[in-house]
Amino acid sequence: MARYRGPACRLCRREGLKLFLKGERCYTDKCAIERRGYPPGQHGQGRGRKPTEYSAQLREKQKLKRVYGALEGPFRRLFARAERGRGITGENLMVLLESRFDNIIYRMGFATSRAEARQLIRHGHFTVNGRRVTIPSYTARAGDEVQVREKSRKITRIQESVELAQRRGVPEWLEVRTDSFSAMVRALPERSEITLPINEQLIVELYSKV
Q1: Which residue from 5, 96, 145, 153 has the highest number of Cβ atoms inside 10 Å of its Cβ?
Q2: How confident is the model at residue 43 (pLDDT cuts 50, 70, 90)?
Q3: So what's the pLDDT on residue 15?
């Protein structure tokens, strides 16, 4: 399965923003943005240029893709789905990305990063409404009950993630019951509840040119 295998911190530096790709490390002074807050490469500290309209749109798309760990093909298909839905395309896209199962697991606090959540999901550690789900891109729905499988609750990574989740908090549209390693999707998030610094309209404008 294709996926980005390079340094995660390089992506954060390129976007000039914490994308929280390395879990706990992102909350410490070891974070690359804290130590080297400029783009990677030999020209990273050079004098910046005024971004063009296309450059601004492209960077916004790349930023969003990297936050959620989506490659271009799946991202385009998700955009097409958002475009077909009712309402504003950009907001639909953001809600669909937040509804991905790997993001849900991360938001619930069962993994320290979305990348870790994807790995745990593929290994079959979670169930949705009593059925095991191993597809990270599965779209969660309001009312879904998510649970860590009984034999997976002793995994150190999951236990530590639950403890660390208290630092970043859990969104109000999710209900987490740490004592039973379970959670429920109360409702799908509204755009106002997604606090990522993303201007999704720029992405809509970029794809409208294709």
Answers
A1: 96
A2: very low
A3: 64
Instruction: List the CATH code of the domain at 8-40+51-97+196-208.
Output: 1.10.1050.10
According to the model, what pLDDT value does residue 99 have?
Answer: 96
CA distances from 66 to 21, 28, 116 (A): 8, 20, 14
Provide the greatest CA pair distance for the chain. Answer: 55
Provide the pLDDT confidence category of residue 8 given band limits of 50, 70 and 90: low
CATH 1.10.1050.10 domain range(s) in the chain: 8-40+51-97+196-208
Spell 130-163 as b/e; 16+ CB within 10 A means b: eeebeebbbbbeeebebbbeeebeebebbeebbe
Q: Which CATH number does 100-188 carry?
A: 3.10.290.10
pTM of the model: 0.80
Assess contact for 44 and 13: CB atoms under 8 A: yes
Q: Residue range 113-127: average pLDDT?
A: 94
Per DSSP, what are the bridge partners of residue 182?
147, 177
Tokens of 70: 């989506």
Closest CA to 39 of 59, 53, 69: 59
Residues of the chain with CATH 3.10.290.10: 100-188
pLDDT tens readout for residues 154-180: 999 899 888 887 777 889 999 999 999
